[in-house]
Amino acid sequence: MDLPKSVGVMILPSVNLFPQAILPLFIFEPRYRRMLRDALASHRMFCIAMQRPDSEEEAPSRVAGVGLIRASVENPDGTSNMILQGVARVSLGRVVRRRPYRVHSIQALLPENTDSARVDALSVKVKELVGERFKQGLPPPLKFLGEPTSAGSGEAPSVDQVLRSLSEIADASVLADLVSCTLLSDPRQRQVMLETVDVETRLRYLIYFLLKEIEDSRSHPKNPEEE
């Protein structure tokens, strides 16, 4: 998909948009209402950048996600409910303008070819760790991309459904992004994954994060009385 040279940027705390991920948004700030109107009238794209945790002022992280507006419904009070689907990770360039909303030039970040044997082995390890994660009693995601919830009830998919979905993913980059955006609860970890373009390195980071989560779960088992 062709990306525009520049796009409006929404800065949100603790939110990351990965390629192919679905992100529902409630648009209520006047500047973002304007941004939505302009996007719908042109390329239908929104950029979501996580607020830099080291900055007290509003400042986007250097790598963000660009998404395509799949649906947008305006409410009587002027707010809107929007569904955004990630299409690419991008590097934010110069600020084209700051008012009424931020617009940045963008550059798509595409992974290069890597050693397929190492990537395949790391992908297998990721899938194994996801299975181990569930064995430790850690919950499955509320929604798993590509796996509908039971009868549209909004219930979490079963562990078997999640693992079956993972087993059908052949693209290691898609696998890494999917597991990252649905299973990593720490937004800082997700941002690391978003900023890591190289697929092999991304898989290694993901394995580290999953192992840490599993080890923490073993060290601090959940008390059944707390449920």
Characteristic key phrases:
227 residues, alpha+beta, Archaeosine Trna-guanine Transglycosylase, Chain: A, domain 4, Methane Monooxygenase Hydroxylase, Chain G, domain 1, 2 domains, 36% helix
Q: What does this entry look like structurally?
A:
The protein has 227 residues and is α+β, with helices and mostly antiparallel strands. It has 2 domains: 103 residues, LON domain-like (Archaeosine Trna-guanine Transglycosylase, Chain: A, domain 4, Roll); 106 residues, Methane Monooxygenase Hydroxylase, Chain G, domain 1 (Up-down Bundle), CATH 1.20.58. Helices cover 36% and strands 24% of the residues. Strand 4 and strand 5 form a beta hairpin. The longest helix has 21 residues.
Topology:
Layout: E1 6-12, E2 22-27, H1 30-40, E3 45-50, E4 63-74, E5 80-97, E6 103-108, H2 116-135, H3 159-167, H4 172-183, H5 187-195, H6 199-219
Parallel strand pairs: 1-3
Antiparallel strand pairs: 1-6, 2-5, 3-4, 4-5, 5-6
Helix pairs in contact: 2-3, 2-4, 2-6, 4-5, 4-6
- The number of domains is 2
**Can you summarize the main beta sheet?**
5 strands, mixed, barrel
Low-confidence spans: 144-153
Global structural class: alpha+beta
Beta fraction? 15-25%
